[in-house]
Amino acid sequence: MESVKSQSYEVHLGQLAEAALKQHIAKINYSKVFVLVDENTKEHCLPSFKEMLNHPIDHIFEIKSGEEHKHIYTCLDLWKQLSNFDGDRKSLLINLGGGVITDMGGFVASTFKRGIDFINIPTTLLSMVDASIGGKTGVDLGALKNQIGVINQPQMVLVFPEFLKTLDPRQVTSGYAEMLKHGLIMDAEYWQNLKTDGNFTDASCIQRSIALKNEVVLEDPTEKGLRKILNFGHTLGHAIESYCLENPNKKTLLHGEAIAVGMILEGYLSHELKGLPKLSLLEIKDVFLQYFDLVEFDDNDIRAILQLLKYDKKNSHGDVNFVLLQSIGTAVTDVKVPVELFYKAFAYYRE
Q1: 342: exposed, middle or buried (Cβ count in 10 Å: 0-12, 13-18, 19+)
Q2: How many CB atoms are located within 10 Å of the residue 84 CB?
Q3: How far apart are CA 287 and CA 283, in angstroms?
Q4: Which residue of 106, 151, 191, 290 is 20 to 30 Å from 10, comparing CA positions?
Q5: Domains of the chain
Q6: Which residue range or ranges hold the 3-dehydroquinate synthase C-terminal domain (predicted)?
Q7: Cβ atoms within 10 Å, residue 284
Q8: What does pTM read for this prediction?
Q9: pLDDT at 199
Q10: Nearest C-alpha neighbor of 148 from the set 313, 305, 37
């Protein structure tokens, strides 16, 4: 299976990934090799990774899993550990885990000693098809998603689809939401294949999602224009994810679960404002509700969620900018939405 070439690095899959890692480690004389894991990847992924790496690891840093630990205090602890274990500018940090690990590990590496090399090895479907491309690193500010961070590229990204066997089904389905998004925003044929085939953990599907995101990132690496389309479903989805994370009365949602809601809501906005056909809107809602449970929102929830929109990273000059669909496979950016339509979108979602 071919590797995907991004800006300054490549995404390698399967056997190519193992060969690329060994070649890179042999070529670069790193002073220290560190690995970042959480308790899940330490148990389920680290043993096979160490066997495959076949190179001394100077220290393994372990953090607690979950979005609630993706904050600056965890970074402070990791920076201290890197320093305590004699990390220097010629050290390497290997991030072995899901999006929290790769986002935060990339940020820690990018800022320690003003930047050390890092390699991302995503172990969840979500991180394979989303966080593996684009160089976005960072942490949350309280419950607000990814407010602090930098764009900085890894040395390489290594994707081993066999790690997906270690996940519970809910985590795998969460990643499916991002894959469906890739089809909705730029490849109608891919959307059709994904929603009908169901074999979305196949390596060829993972590679296709990586390649689609990479096309966008190569054209717009710093999100000045086209790259914004990757945020379809995320404006409301991130607000929903943050609200459920900080509200003890709501079930905490995985990222893919929250943006699945966001894509139905923003699909409705697309129908109202950009002419997305009614049949396409119904199709989008039907597909997502096949895989994701309906989430209950009352009027108080909706008002609180809408208040969080002001923190969205795409905002400019006080305006909330949305990515919407003209059709399945075609997205438009920087759309302003009248407030009353938000309530109609939630009503449509709850029907």
Answers
A1: buried
A2: 9
A3: 6
A4: 191
A5: 4-167 (3.40.50.1970), 170-350 (1.20.1090.10)
A6: 175-315
A7: 26
A8: 0.92
A9: 82
A10: 313
